[in-house]
């Protein structure tokens, strides 16, 4: 086979690049919902199944925010803005960071010693095609802050997986937690603030709680999180795959 046959690309039409030259499509998956809905459990499962990085949004809270929540004080909008922006920026940074590669070692035939190939000589590693973030994103305006990640970035798509369950179920789950700063009474506070995704936000074509025949395509996948953890994880994975 000639070199020309391997490297040749069909000509572009009207200035449109050939599909192979377009940027790799990347996805941000935000696992949302009130305390106790299973965000971490679902995110870890998706991380394992999809083999993409996972970020725990709570780790980006300021010490002041954590202290307020541990004392039972709900966060204000002012407390959340910088946190939401940091979550968004961390997702973008992760999408543009090469996947870490293990050092390449070579062993001499005349010696038992091995040498590690310098990083400058190792093959470049691809960047991940997705990232998972846990973030309560209770209100639409909070979700809108995260949506900015895809503004002016046609190669980035953002999706929300909203884990829906009753206040009573989540209260019981939070009570059963050990050594967690989020207390059970904060669940009620979060439900008071909650603006569950609806209307144009919902991607009802991929959602597990789809309204039959509607076929609406927003960016929020709603998953019933009231059942057993493994069941919820499978439903979430199915919703994610349905959105791809």
Automatic annotation (TrEMBL):
Keywords: ATP-binding, Kinase, Nucleotide-binding, Transferase
EC category: transferase
Sequence segments annotated as region (Disordered): 1-24, 95-130
Low complexity: bias regions: 104-128
Pfam family, one: AAA_33
GO CC field: cytoplasm
Stretches with biased composition (Polar residues): 1-23
GO MF annotation: an example: gluconokinase activity
Entry superkingdom: Eukaryota
Protein family according to the UniProt entry: Belongs to the gluconokinase GntK/GntV family.
Protein name listed in UniProt: gluconokinase
